[in-house]
Design a protein that fits this description.
Elements: E1 17-25, E2 31-35, E3 38-44, E4 57-63, E5 66-74
Parallel strand pairs: 3-5
Antiparallel strand pairs: 1-2, 1-4, 2-3, 4-5
Length: 201
């Protein structure tokens, strides 16, 4: 609490609406406001989605001996605002919903996103995850350059796998194994096998 000596009026609650100054915000969501040297303990109306802060100018109304904070009229810090509701928040639009800002920060313990069709365009994307799973019927990608670095890499194709390359260079530091029921190696110009030892059959 601050050092202002509030007169907590319970019997002489004013009628109508009036502007007041928020002096304190309690943990239970209630607030202390001051107007014309008098202070009142009030609750925030559900329709007031802007979380009031100490120093804000707010609109107060009395309903059945209960003081309600209806809206935030002016912020002490106009560059900061927080949308806050006591329960779940659902935003529904019959048309398009647009978000525009210089920076967007999303922080949640768990998230679920379902979009029937999405187009993404950007200059750069970075992701740091412990585990990634993608399941789908078809994947298509076009890249000018692809670089992959991993400790272990496993790929399993049940049917046919095709590789078409202008030049193909494969190098193993220790061991290279090719095994199949039938193996065919052909070339139009030169086929070269070079080793210290060659075992056939």
């Amino acid at each position: 609490m601050n050092n202002i000596n509030h007169q907590l009026l319970t019997a002489a609650i004013p009628t109508g609406q009036f502007a007041a100054l928020v002096t304190h915000c309690f943990d239970d969501g209630s607030l202390m406001v001051e107007s014309e040297g008098r202070g009142w303990h009030c609750r925030r109306a559900v329709s007031c989605v802007i979380a009031p802060q100490a120093g804000d100018t707010v609109l107060i109304s009395a309903v059945e001996n209960q003081m309600w904070l209806l809206a935030v009229l002016e912020r002490l810090n106009p560059n900061s605002a927080e949308l806050s509701v006591p329960g779940d928040l659902h935003i529904a639009s019959q048309g398009a919903l647009s978000l525009s800002s210089e920076a967007l920060n999303i922080n949640a313990v768990q998230g679920d996103c379902h979009i029937s069709e999405m187009n993404y365009s950007g200059e750069k994307i970075s992701a740091w995850v412990s585990l990634s799973r993608i399941v789908g019927k078809r994947a298509e990608s076009v890249w000018q350059t692809v670089t992959q670095l991993s400790q272990q890499f496993f790929r399993h194709t049940r049917q046919t796998e095709h590789v078409r390359a202008g030049q193909l260079d494969m190098k193993a530091e220790d061991y290279l194994r090719l095994h199949a029921q039938n193996t065919v190696i052909t070339s139009k110009a030169i086929t070269k096998v070079d080793s210290e030892q060659i075992h056939m059959g």
